[in-house]
Design goal:
The complex is a heterodimer. By secondary structure, chain A is an alpha/beta fold. In chain A, 40% of the residues lie in helices and 26% in strands. Chain A is elongated. Classes of the chains: A alpha/beta, B mainly alpha.
Amino acid sequence: MSKTTIRIAAGIGLFALAMLQVPSASAQGKLQEVLSRGKLVVGTGSTNPPWHFRDEKGALVGFDIEVSKIIAQGLFGDPTKIEFVNQASDARIPNIVTGKVDIACQFVTVTAARAQQVAFTVPYYREGVSLMMVKGGRYADYAALKAAGNKVTISVLQNVFAEQMVRDALPEAKVDQFESVDLMYQALNSGRADAAATDSSSLRYYMKQNAGRYVDSGFSWNPQTYSCIVKQGDPDWLNFVNVALRESMTGTTFPLYKAAFELWFGETPPEPKIGFPYEFR
Amino acid sequence: MQVFLDQVWTARWPLWDGFLLTIEIAAAAIACGTVLGCIVGIQLVFAPTLVRFPFRVYVDVMRGTPLLVLILAAFYIPSVAGLNLSATQAGILALTLFAGAHIGELLRGSLQAIPPGQAEAARSIGLTFPQMLAYVLLPQALRSALPPWINTGVELIKGSSLLSMIGVGELLLKTQEVIGRTFMTIEFYVFAGCLYLITNILLDQVGKTVERYAGGRS
């Protein structure tokens, strides 16, 4: 190795070291940073109704968007002071870790493994899997589907766990996997499948869009919790977001949460009970 | 079919915006990439070994790395270093670096394919190095580099679809957004695929026309 090469290598090494020591966050904390900036930077997606998608005019809408507005309302008293950063699902955690966004509200499923990398806020929805059937079809509800054993066919979105997921609820049913949501619904409409199994929220939204055409089997399983995520190591920011979200489900801002819930899921969430704060029960 | 056409009509502005952004990104990347590539190509041929070395490393790293990895690197590494690029800026940066390496390498090939007698003749009539480049070598090199250069443009238009991964609202992401709302997966992916195909065929034709006028050897 020539002397020059060694020098160049040493230079690159020193530079890399210097990069590592650049302070990652400002000293004042995220809450003050957001307040003085005057807007909240939220990471979310744009392709998944009813969570985050673009309406016909191209505006970002959905339940995740409403949740973000609740937080902005708490910060500035103005739900419009948000900059949405569009990100793919894989980018949710990296964009938090590298500080590209203040918070991500993008149907992030809470898992212990993810909690090692980011901080989860309090949950704002519990997702599950439900079965949707054509109204007036052969089977009336979940009990009828289960009783029919291997005579029923369930259409489901292709995925490694799809078969097992359906088997958990309907052990004998035939499972038809489809590559896309439209094909999965088509199978149901054409009668190739007796029921479609997918995320409860998606089904609720689809049923609301096509009112009167479908029925829910009345059974849901496979629980998973949705929360927003923030960067670790800033308890004041996490606490602020938690308060804003929690009070939208239990306190003063409940009307905002309720309106969003009704708009995107077509049903009314349970009213907070007056008296003892039931989340401590 | 009618339903699909209605949906295309409803979504015409988002799709159009996405299409424009795709073209803009590709155009910006090919413009910046060409400037960068010219510098790199000339250095690769004429610079002394020590100066050439970093350019060689740059070209090899860029050409040996998947474009998606480059895009993710351009999106995340600057923000760790405290430089906040928007997704579109990061995407153009990645595509520029990618194009610069490819154009540099193809220019190197074109320059080295010129018979050495040309440079010797230029020097013997007293042209300085910049004059030799401007009047003798580059006109010949650029002519033979034109077909692969158009090819790089086509690669960039296709490659720009990867920017949907970092949330740039180009044609593919806009298409996915429409699919998210309408659930018409196959129809809209075929539609977007046709738009890319038509654009690239047109670009190819433009390239062929320019080639004919420039009198390039094909």
